[in-house]
Amino acid sequence: MPKLRHLMLPLLAIVMPQAAQAKTAQPPPRPSVRLEVTARTPAFGGQEFGTHGSYETITGKAHMRIDPLAPANRGIVDLNLAPRAADGMVEYDVDFVIQRPADPAKARRVMLYEVVNRGMRLMAMMAGGSPNPASPGDGLLQRQGYTLVASGWQGDVASKALVGARFPIASDNGKPVTGQISTETIFEDMTSKRITLPYPVGGDDPALTRLTVRAVADSAPQTLTGWRFTDDRHIEIERPTGFDAGAIYRFEYVAKDPWVMGLGFAATRDFIAWLRHAPAAQGNPLADLAAAPCERNAQRACANPQGGAFSSAVAFGGSQSGRYLRDFLWQGFNRDLAGRRVFDGVIPFIPGGRRTYTNFRFAEPGRFSRQHEDHDVPGFTFPFTYASLPDPNSGRIDGILRACTTTATCPKVFHIDTSAEFWQAGSSLVSTGGTNRDVALPANVRAYMIAGGAHAPGMILPACAYPANNLNYTPIVRAMLIAMVDWAGKGTAPPASRWPRLARGELKPVDALKGPQVPTAGLVWPKVMNRPIPPAGKPAWPAYVPAIDADGNDLPGIRMPQVAVPRGTYLGWNLRKAGYGEGDICLLSGTYLPFAKDAESRGGDSRASLAERYRLAGEREAKVRAATARLQTEGFLLPEDASKLVAVEAGQ
């Protein structure tokens, strides 16, 4: 697999030793934040949420200034090449959206921060399935009295409809910074010819410019000469014969003008620290929450002067944003410039064992490693797990929490993945660290796998061979969100980890799985999975997928009633079909294959039919009720969601 030749390894944020800090007479560097509030309006049409009353929405821009010489900022790639103000500071701004109880006396002193995904606020889907942040859905989050905050961190999000950021461009004493980079495109059709480049063209040296195509991820690349620049951000190609809609086109070229994208980590660190601790005199619209009453069992947190306006702050990020949170922790940004913890709880949701392609020169935070495309995109390498351990390849000791452990600023962590991430994102590495054994999670970390879940439930893609997996696992995530707030703020113990382990036979090599026979669907079990690419000359880090039962459903993990008492097989993966890179794994979509109605209609299906497995009237309903009650008792379902789930599943 070709490597990107321009890439710089992200530098772990430098942390001053405590002893050195004690000797200096200078105060710790502090971010400079000025809010430009563009709107402050009643939220959700003035709807009341129980004892917490109505909400208001505050939107605008946060104008940020950062000291490039501060030790905590020196790990930000190319920050030293950013333009500076007269006082030596680097300036940028980010969008923000805040939804808070209008009456501070009715609020809880809990901040729930959403890491936006490509500028989109997706956590609203945790509120009863509503994808619209302007709607409270069933009001779960507002009924808790949380203050909800989102802010931009991705510097290449340009739409005004999204929550973005505007970062400076690095330059070398006024001259453009250039470097060779590459981009990949899968057209998914047979007519498109235009490729958009992530950065402007910075040179046209033929020796450094190349277009290749491969049929699937493991194919040898073939060089193409039929292409031309149409402007400095686009090329047009001549589609070669013999390659289908799933072909992978890779263009290498010399680019210029990289954004200082690593500011996306400092932006969150400094904005949240400011919201937590800045007084009203500095324009902080949340400072009055410091007068909110303390809730039961959280008095110590409320009395803690480090807590500021909030007794606790919890960050949630899904998919790209979950990878961001792992990166945020690894690079040491959960320690603010005054030495305080930024987030008390963090929920990386469906990130797998990856981080992000953010704190690099010519970074592209929206790109990520997959089995078929973009396989070698940075961000999928050691360390994988939260505990620190030696890399089996290099011997280097590292872990996601190593930096915050050094400074005593680690949060509580819920790592939540579905079955899909084991196939597409190396989730097994979260608990093995790249070894062939189980690695213990730190005491402040819990890991949960949702059995049978797809990365994007119900997503139907034309390239995928099988019907989409529509398993709605949102109720599990809702319960875990509330559990994290209680763990981070009150110290309430959460459910024990529910994660597959090698020692229990719950993780298997991909070629050891023997799936069921489903001739009517033409089911073929995958021969590939997404694995991190090891350094040249080094062996691959072992990676595994969950063990399965006779139906093909996952054995380990949190088994929702739909999986524990199934009507079909829920797979976290789907395959690309003929004409679209056949045999590679299809992006995001899982698979659902219903059982036959009775034995006569099985047609060679090795799975028992519905009539064969649920012979008595009411048998499945009783089992669904038992499975749901068990999950509620274990803390994986809220009572309100358990009731809804039974009504839907047992009523079918």
Structure explained in plain terms:
By secondary structure, this protein is α+β, with helices and mostly antiparallel strands. Among the domains are: 178-256; 507-649, no CATH class. Helices cover 17% and strands 20% of the residues. The chain has helices spanning 18-23, 140-143, 263-277, 299-303, 320-330, 402-406, 419-424, 429-432, 474-490, 561-564, 610-613, 619-634, 639-649; strands at residues 32-42, 55-66, 90-101, 110-115, 147-151, 165-166, 171-172, 175-176, 178-185, 194-196, 201-203, 210-214, 222-224, 227-231, 234-237, 248-256, 312-318, 345-349, 389-390, 397-398, 412-418, 445-450, 507-508, 545-546, 568-571, 591-594. The strands form 7 sheets. Strands 1, 2, 3, 4, 5, 6, 17, 18, 21 and 22 form a 10-stranded mixed sheet that branches. Helix 12 (619-634) packs antiparallel against helix 13. The longest helix is centred in the last third of the chain and has 17 residues, at 474-490. The radius of gyration is 25 Å and the shape is globular. Residues 1-25 have low confidence and may be disordered.
Give short descriptive properties of this protein.
single chain, 652 residues, alpha+beta, ten-stranded mixed beta sheet, 13 helices, 26 strands, 17% helix, 20% strand, disordered N terminus
Write the layout of secondary structure elements.
Blueprint: H1 18-23, E1 32-42, E2 55-66, E3 90-101, E4 110-115, H2 140-143, E5 147-151, E6 165-166, E7 171-172, E8 175-176, E9 178-185, E10 194-196, E11 201-203, E12 210-214, E13 222-224, E14 227-231, E15 234-237, E16 248-256, H3 263-277, H4 299-303, E17 312-318, H5 320-330, E18 345-349, E19 389-390, E20 397-398, H6 402-406, E21 412-418, H7 419-424, H8 429-432, E22 445-450, H9 474-490, E23 507-508, E24 545-546, H10 561-564, E25 568-571, E26 591-594, H11 610-613, H12 619-634, H13 639-649
Parallel strand pairs: 4-5, 4-17, 17-18, 18-21, 21-22
Antiparallel strand pairs: 1-2, 2-3, 3-5, 3-6, 7-8, 9-16, 10-15, 11-16, 12-13, 12-16, 14-15, 19-20, 23-24, 25-26
